[in-house]
Amino acid sequence: MRRILVTGGAGFIGSNFVHYLVEHTDAYVVVLDKLTYAASPEALEPLPADRVELVEGDVTDTGLVDSLVGSLTGAEDAVVHFAAESHNDNSLRDPSPFIRTNIVGTFEILEAVRRHGVRLHHVSTDEVYGDLELDDPARFTETTPYLPSSPYSASKAGADHLVRAWVRSFEVAATISNCSNNYGPWQHIEKFIPRQITNVLAGGRPKLYGAGENVRDWIHAADHSSAVWTILNRGQIGHTYLIGADGEQKNLEVVRMILSILGRPEDDFDHVTDRAGHDLRYAIDPTKLRTELGWEPQFADFRAGLADTIEWYRANSDWWRPHKDAVESEYAARGQ
Ligand code: NAD
Ligand code: TDX
């Protein structure tokens, strides 16, 4: 049986990917996750124990990572590396866990796959490319120069550079993907879309940073999962693939859409203090992934995917409600 080690597999996108593996493949999945505040081990609970195993531990733990990677002995076995500190606002408050997990953690994964000769797919973000002007006709491609803005994106850029160097210097068999903004079930309520949905469901108002002119390129987490699986199996070693679903939206429009789907007036939100160094626009050109590997997203209609996601948060309030007040009081303390 093919074994896949998924780091960060109890987080938002990692858990979605584990569900994807159980539903679409016959692989055995080992999840390595530190179970930080951002983890949702509940997301893995419905999955069969003969398919998925959860190991609680840190990607910076050399011995643990070595033993888990060393147990991948089949020719098709692989590591898919999602584990990261992932929230820009947190990286502005305290960058240190971002440097440790995102850079040192990736270094430990690279050294282990090098020692044991194991295939690696490294999951990264479009934020490594910095931002675009609103009217720039260009989108990010695989050759766009790196220009990260925040401690989070700089730590992901650092990790990407390590992967590229380990491929070139040590012939590690790795691919990299840089994906745009994800939405869908199990995303932590500190993030933009779930924060606004749960604000409205809890009787409050959405909180928009600045004027809300910033643009993000939205993709459903299920489409990110199918893209990662495609790259793992059909991608060329040493190559980078950008993942995106042509989903550009202004933040202001996303807030209005959430309010309208929930039957509230579209101006029923607050403008709050902007994020320091706030990137203006991200946009992905996914031509390489689509033409070379034949990948296509399933969630083409953003408003429909958003409506499904709103329904999911309504049905799963037991999961997010216990944390809502604490998340909001941290934001309120920063004027956000
Ligand atoms: P998340 O914060 O929801 O989940 C991260 C997971 O990693 C959590 O389960 C956490 O417990 C685990 N983790 C953190 N530190 C760890 C450590 N030291 N050792 C082991 N596990 C640790 O993040 P996410 O949004 O699911 O993002 C997953 C990956 O995808 C990240 O690498 C992120 O950079 C990348 N990415 C995210 C997006 C997005 O829109 N969310 C877009 C592009 C790329
Ligand atoms: O309350 C809010 N109000 C608001 O206007 C929050 C939390 C965010 N925003 C804005 C900031 C961004 O322009 O919404 C946009 C999206 O914010 P986030 O959800 O924090 O995402 P972003 O900073 O774009 O980064 C995300 O996409 C790339 C993920 O968190 C990263 O992990 C991923 O790499």
Summed up, what is this model?
With 336 residues, the chain is α/β, with parallel strands linked by helices. The chain is 42% helix and 16% strand. The strands form four sheets. A seven-stranded parallel β-sheet has the order 3-2-1-4-5-6-11, with helices on both faces. It has a two-stranded parallel sheet with strand order 7-10. The chain has a two-stranded parallel ribbon with strand order 8-13.
Question: Would you kindly provide a written description of the structure presented here, covering whatever features stand out?
Answer:
- This protein is about 40% helix and about 15% strand.
- With about 325 residues, it is α/β, with parallel strands linked by helices.
- The chain has a domain of about 200 residues: Rossmann fold, CATH 3.40.50.720.
- The strands form four sheets. A seven-stranded parallel beta sheet has the order 3-2-1-4-5-6-11, sandwiched between helices.
- Helix 1 links the parallel strand 1 and strand 2.
- Helix 4 runs parallel beside helix 5 and helix 6 packs parallel to helix 8.
- It is globular, with a radius of gyration of 19 Å.
- Bound molecules: nicotinamide-adenine-dinucleotide (NAD) and thymidine-5'-diphospho-beta-D-xylose.
